[in-house]
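User: Hey, quick favor. My workstation is busy. Could you predict this chain's structure for me?
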Amino acid sequence: MAGEVMDNRGRGEAKPGLPSVHPEGRKYALICLGVSLIAALLAWETIAWPLAFLSLCILAFFRDPERIVPRDDSLILSPADGTVTQIVEVEVPRELQGEAEGRFKGMGAGPVTRVSVYLSIFDVHINRSPCGGTIGDMAYVPGKFVNAELDKSSEENERQHIVITRSDGVVVGMTQIAGLLARRIVPFVKPGDIVAAGQRVGLIRFGSRVDLYLPEGTSPQVLMGQRVIAGETVIGRLGVTTELEGLKQ
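Assistant: No problem, here it is.
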């Protein structure tokens, strides 16, 4: 049940089951299934069966599972399901910096750590807020659709920048990036909205990437190549700058 409190002492009830499907996907699946049924009635089996299978694939792509979000204000959570493909120090993108005369505070200029999470077509594509706070500036930038695994996709691809200001004034930035197959970024929030950590903030269709910009003085608590889960995996802890190593095996 959504909103139920779970803890590490056994409180809460876990019930395995199939995830729900986001409304964005239901309409496409129904259209595809409808065409499949028409083709079946016309005895066009070579078309009907592939379309029926495609409708199942669409439902799987738009699945929207519930997540158990840690309740700790010091945590910065993963905004996406996928694989950590980059951990680099970069300059804050202009769209996340904010302006003195703007309504919302930005991250400011200067170097920060960017953690990039690549989503394949098999990953859940619902993106979630990495922390609680107020949605500040949102900047949509039209662009190309090169492979989202490439570094240049952060600067060249179609993307949606989102600034989130926590109640303590700390600002976290994230960017949804369209990929080779992704052709639309769908936001669920708007500037001024108050969001909770792990709350759904948007989706990207068909393979993409999400960049998370950590506040100054915070280092990643994940490793290159690590699989992360939106709203559950801890990407960083405010003020913690430990060095981590891992072994691929």
